[in-house]
Amino acid sequence: MNTVKLVVLLFIFNCYPSFTYSQELPPQEVSKLITSYKNDLRGPYHRIKWFCEDGTEREPKDPCPDGIGGGIQHASFKASALQLRRANHLFFGEILGGLKPNDFLDRNANYSRLKQYQIGNYLSSVDNGWVLRKAQYYRGAIQSEDEEAWGKDFFINIVADDEFIIQNYYLLRQSLKDIPHNGDDNIAQLMRSQSKILSEDHPSFMDIRIKIHGQPQASDIRLVNNYLQSKKTSFTEEASLAFEDLVKTMHTFYAPIDFKDLKSDLSQITEQNEATASLSEFLKNYSKDATPDQLTSALSNVLYAIRTHITDFKYSKNRLAILDLSNQLENILLKEAQKWDTTNLSDNLYKINTLACATLGSGLIEEWEYYAIASQFTLTTSGNTTNLKQLNAILNTSRSIVEWTTTMVKANYQDEVNIYTKFEPLAYGFIDDRVRSSISLNLGEEVSKLGVLIAKVSNINNAVVDLKNQTTIRGLNPGYAFGKLVVVDGNPEDVSVHSNNIYIFEKPPSDLKPIAGIMTVSEGNLVSHVQLLARNLGIPNAVLSYENLKDLKAYDGKKVFYAVSNQGHVILKFEDDMTSEEKDLFFKKESTKNRIAVPVENIKLDTNEVLNMRAVRAVNSGEICGPKAANLGELKHLFPEQVVEGLVIPFGVFRAHMDQQMPGENKSYWSYLNETFNKAEALRTENSDEETVEAFQLENLRILHKAIINMQLSATFEKDLKANFKDAFKGSIGTVPVFLRSDTNMEDLKEFTGAGLNLTLFNILLEDGILKGIKQVWASAYTERSFKWRQKYLLNPENVFPSILIIPSVDVDYSGVMITKGINSGNTSDVTVAFSRGAGGAVDGQLAETRLITEDASELLAPARQPNYIRLPENGGTKTYYTSYNAPILNDKNIEDIKALAKSIRKTMDPNSVSEHAFDVEFGFKNNELWLFQIRPFVENKQAKSSEYLISISPRTNVDRNIALTTAL
Question: Class of 812-938 per CATH?
């Protein structure tokens, strides 16, 4: 090989490594590849080839013969891009022509490849072609006519499937906007992308860009033209042309309704049903002279008719045509809704009702969800007035619908966006772009108007710094805090939190360490571990809009005072603005901080054999085992047919193992643990700061945690466990999959719940896995998260003893949590439940189906928006599945069973104090049969709820006050 060839080959391998391995590339390496593609004239492509119908490939000058079915010409992919597909399941610069439709649909990965194509289109629009930045001009790489023909065939194929349409209506309509199939394009997205790019190049354009994104109107064209004229003398020719292109796009977007074209498109549909009749009626009765409110209302009805009758069409070509018309009509509705200016309460309520219907028609909520809340928009009027109580109910329902629409977008795309954001931060804007291009934006504005009016007449106003729109903020849990404000715009799971900070998350993390206060865009569900801990510990907790979060980013890092009143009133102010009363709260709070001792006076550490769960009762909690095992043993006695069998590894077994010699330390595990806490107290006595003390403890506990995991189990214990396992579960260890649940003596104290702090292992089958799992569960009491939560509130954390509850796996269809009271209402005869599909539902902050069940009704508080769930196969481990949202999780029988269970629990678990105590119950349904897994007291922070300060900031309102429907907004 000569020198010149060698240099060329080295260059090729350095720029485009040919991967011969299949391991997944880390995000930083993917990011480097993206940069290389952006700077390459061919992007991720290798060269142009012919791809023939028989699967063969030919050179550009050697077309596929007709005799083998012909073929299409387009670019092939570089080795690095192909490797990303194999190893990372990432598809950059996708070429549709020639793809197998099912490969692109990617059902087994929850349609990931299709969604990535949409995200890629978005990135291309906001980042000058993205990976195709220079390859946009690579002639012949993509043949538009082949892409469009493929797209049409693709949609004809998938819309033939009734189930796919019903289960994925939102995703289907969105994909029609992005995949070429009918000479169409996404004008709305183009307008936003152009304005975004221009604002980045010209910061003085930012205010207009915000207007275009947040409150788009036809008058924005004049704003852009005026800006262009004012800057034209200082602009380059290229900049002027870019603004002129934006104006052209805006003129296209805001062009008057072309009724003639709509009638022509409708005439191509060869079948007649309710959908075509509704559209035909609209085109017959309305013209360009119709008012925005008339058009918006009529279009909402048409969109509703199309959605509810789409599967009435027999032929795919008609289904595709009506769906394309549906997207056209939605674009018209978006523009008309912006023109519709409501001036009084009556107009406002009518518009909210109309747009709520439009969210159903456009796929943002499901049909069953709409009907679950439709009756809540009905007003009982007296003459021309209503009352504040009814208006507040409508406001809460309307806010919920706005939240459900945004969570529908996230449920469909968040997983892919999270993956892309790790190597391409711009991808995070995709979800915001989809929300802004939907009716959710205008509905949110209208709901905010109602909130402002109610706040005005009720004399209730949030006081959150200087935010413009605060009506979207509502308190979930009372409390107050002072600390540094940290605003997290993105995936919260990798954020390292500090206990003295106040955090604003888009979604609460599933494994949250202690913090001073929290606000979230999505509250998760009312009974997740995060929510229960916040409620138990008096941590102020509120929900806000994504717009609020973005506005608050300007104050990231500032010291703030944060309070949530008992009535949900929210205050957030800077340190300098605090009153003397508010400053005194923290002096008093620190000096009177409630710290509790884990009771150990009755603990029996000499019980060191494995117990059958039938042998324990509630009275044994804190004595020989934790409350999970004790209470489940009680439930087994009370509800023998609804509770599984179980084994209990008591405190004494753990304590006996801790007396063994700890490797490398010349002392026992127990001595090492106690010396750690003694040394910590000595450091405090020496005036070491708390961070130094905590760092010392955490490092020692990290060493202890690892040592326990590697601990040798005694032969006597293993023999005892195997014998009891076979007796209880009618199968030898290693043949019956089980759950291992940590069950400490620091859980379910009167002042502290400890919910979700320690480890639960799912569906462990193999003997070795069970034995290792026991040590992992023991060790979980010494993780950083568990230690930090309890260290904050316990006087004697060294006396935390873990027991373990072992129960056989039940592969439930759906599972969740019940609180035997109305969490928000406080009504002790109500029940609050949150359910997700599969096992382990609702406890880790999933967007679960949440309901308030009363004696007479089941009120939907939130539908499920969790795209994935786990099942428990007989061979152990877990298997992930994906779900849709077109049907509720709980059925009528389930709800009746839940009501009956709640009554039984109140009566049997606490017969003398039914009105005062509530319980936190984990359970599930398999084949509509109810199975109980855990029960514990529901612990709330009464000090936070009764705080004089929190009472003082809760405005008193007369909910029966009459409000005229003609009241001006």
Answer: alpha beta
